[in-house]
Design goal:
Blueprint (H helix, E strand, L loop, with lengths): L7 E5 L3 H13 L3 E5 L2 H10 L4 E5 L7 H11 L4 E5 L4 H9 L4 E4 L4 H14 L12 E3 L2 E4 L4 E3 L5 E3 L2 H12 L5 E2 H9 L8 H14 L9 E4 L3 E4 L3 E3 L2
Parallel strand pairs: 1-2, 1-3, 3-4, 4-5
Antiparallel strand pairs: 6-7, 6-13, 7-8, 8-9, 10-12, 11-12
């Protein structure tokens, strides 16, 4: 019988007094851990063994955590929770827009962090990368979620960020139906991120600038005032 292993968490923080006790705490609660003191060590760890989630400090000497977050969101579809002493809402929104799944401010309660880890793992289980990667056409465009791009009628493509890719996929799942900001935010980042509901609006704005003929007068992703957003086009699954 194949042994079922608990999820492995990579903790990336230059402060030993944070990463080592946190590693001990998570192991006591049934998770496996690996520790890294900087982005370089984190990359080596990721190349050596698979992990299920990365706890990533933002402010570290040398290369900061946001650059690794961007890389992970783009290349690995690996869940990331950012850890940082920064408390400004703009910093939190930046991290979420780069593709982070959650954002926890220091100092943090390890019990709350554990709950957030479990919540993110529930939303992004190990088989997340095997979920629907179907190409779909809409409004004369094609969404290719695996390549994270939109293909135009002339064959050229427009790259999407991880957040844009996921949000467009959610809208394509229910064409013609109004999806509230709160629901979209729950699906993208979980209820913990609800305070930062500008994330959805900002991502919608970027999507419109990429796929709409006139972003100021959108016809594909329309706003339902007081409701949310709606994909106003027929969607067809492609082989």
């Amino acid at each position: 019988m194949t042994e079922v292993k608990e999820p492995k968490i990579l903790i990336v923080d230059d402060a030993r007094e944070i990463r080592e006790p946190l590693g001990v705490y998570l192991r006591r609660h049934g998770l496996r851990t690996r520790l890294a003191a900087n982005v370089g060590e984190a990359r080596r760890a990721l190349s050596e063994e698979p992990v299920h989630l990365v706890l990533l400090d933002v402010m570290m000497p040398g290369e900061d955590g946001l650059s690794l977050c961007r890389e992970l969101a783009a290349d690995r579809r690996l869940p990331v929770i950012l850890l940082t002493a920064r408390t400004r809402q703009e910093d939190r929104v930046t991290g979420l827009e780069l593709g982070a799944d959650d954002y926890v401010s220091k100092p943090f309660d390890p019990r709350e962090l554990l709950a957030r880890i479990r919540a993110v793992l529930r939303r992004a289980p190990p088989k997340k990368r095997d979920l629907i990667l179907m190409r779909r056409s809409f409004g004369g465009l094609i969404h290719d979620p695996d390549r994270r791009c939109v293909i135009l009628a002339d064959g050229n493509s427009i790259d999407l960020t991880s957040g844009e890719n996921r949000l467009l996929g959610l809208l394509l799942d229910q064409p013609g139906q109004v999806q509230s900001r709160a629901r979209l935010l729950d699906l993208l980042h979980g209820r913990e991120a609800r305070a930062y509901d500008r994330t959805v609006d900002n991502t919608i704005s970027r999507l419109r600038h990429k796929i709409e003929q006139d972003p100021k007068h959108p016809v594909l992703i329309v706003t339902e005032w007081g409701g949310g957003y709606r994909l106003a086009a027929e969607v067809e699954a492609l082989p």
